[in-house]
Amino acid sequence: GAKRRTQPKTGEDGVKDKTAGEAVHLRREIGLLSAVSFIIGTVVGSGIFIAPKGVLMNSGSVGLSLLMWALCGILSLCGALCYAELGTTFTKSGGHYTYLLETFGPMPAFLRLWAEFLFIRPAVASYVSLAFGRYVVEPFFAPCPAPMVLIKLVSILGVTFVVAINCWSVTMASRTQVTLTFIKMFALVLIIIPGVIALAKGKTDNFQNGFEVDALTLDKLPLAFYNGLYAYGGWFYLNFITEEVINPNRNIPLAISSSMVTVTVLYVLVNLAYYTMMTPAEILFSDAVAVTFAQKALQGLAPVIPFLVSLSCLGALNGGFFSSPRMLFVGAREGHWPPIFSMIHIRRQTPLPAVLLLYPLVVFMLITGETYQLLNFASFARWFFIALATLGMIIHRYRYPLLPRPFKVPLVIAVTFTVVCFFIVGLSLYSDPWNTGRSFALTLTGVPVYFVTVYRFRLPHRWARFLSKS
């Protein structure tokens, strides 16, 4: 008997233990270059190829929409700097979830987790995959509109492909991400060059009377911001994988700030190119702005642009599916989510349950949703929780002034960012009460779930025992 006890555990259990150990102590393998390409690769998705229409529609003029793009970039940079402080103060992975847990406690953190997997991630993923489907299908039907059924079918195929890669291998998923980042940068440069050349030759017709403010209304302002901020969204993804970044105190702030400055410059230049070659009416009429642009400015290369944009969407989709399960993984590790989601496939080392949980929700939203509704629907909860996390950071700074903070963001930036976020979120309830109201209501459905599952010790003993088994 004694002999048997001293032998190490072998077989499936032994493998499981090893895998779990490795999963909890994630190896630091992401250097500065990988971190920058991870952020840029996740930020530059479908947004810059679709959102110009939404920004123009809600801001009302060319000049104001360009200003909006620059402001969204500056606001995102402020938010990114706040998250750089959060990421170096709290060194755990998990992004928003971890920061809310550390500053406000378990309930807001659980609600963030709940909202992320119930509708934020599915809505964002279905929005991006719809863009992928549109860019793949539309060139075959131009100039007629493509059938929506076919677009949705191709979108589902795109999601399935990304889910398969993320279930199959982490290495394959990260290599795919880096490759697709370079393709995206190429697509943006391909759009910028002819626009800049035309501008240099004096093609400025569409910028005449650029700042007409008659069409601008206060209720549309947050929706213009949402469209712009959506295109910049993704600067917080590096914080989901903090535990895997080499020298995080230096690399997280550096990667976040350099990628956001790069993206802002590229985005403003791309929009300049769009407006140089297309009238505001043409942009508003187009569902796929980059395709219409290619047909006007790059006749020879016109068929290439939709292909590059669809690959760009695929990259953004892949980045989301790669990083979001990390939040589930950390949540399950903290006991806020069923333990199965902290498990990793024995041979493949991929967070299989977490990735697969998202798949049916994304497909469901894809089939039922409409692009711009999905965007407003997801943005409300996303920005509300981001504002809450930066508010938590400010409070935490006052509560624990002596805590070491390797990177400190100036207080004025943190306060400005938090106030602007709460303002946009509050105003959007007034602008689009149906979608933002649904988003708010769905977030609150997490409250009873929290009390029944996480707050178990308040329940009758028999219930608690049943829940811990399930």
TrEMBL record:
User: A GO molecular function for this record?
Assistant: L-amino acid transmembrane transporter activity
Pfam families listed in its UniProt record: AA_permease_2 (PF13520)
From which domain of life does this come? Eukaryota
Q: Does the keyword tRNA processing apply?
A: no
User: What are the subcellular locations of this protein?
Assistant: Membrane
**What are the UniProt keywords, alphabetically?**
Membrane, Transmembrane, Transmembrane helix
- GO CC terms, sorted: membrane
Q: Where does it primarily localize? A: membrane
Q: How does it sit in the membrane?
A: Multi-pass membrane protein
Protein name in the entry: Si:ch73-352p4.8
Q: Which organism is it from?
A: Sphaeramia orbicularis (orbiculate cardinalfish)
Q: What is the lineage of its organism?
A: Eukaryota, Metazoa, Chordata, Craniata, Vertebrata
- Gene transcribed to yield this protein: si:ch73-352p4.8
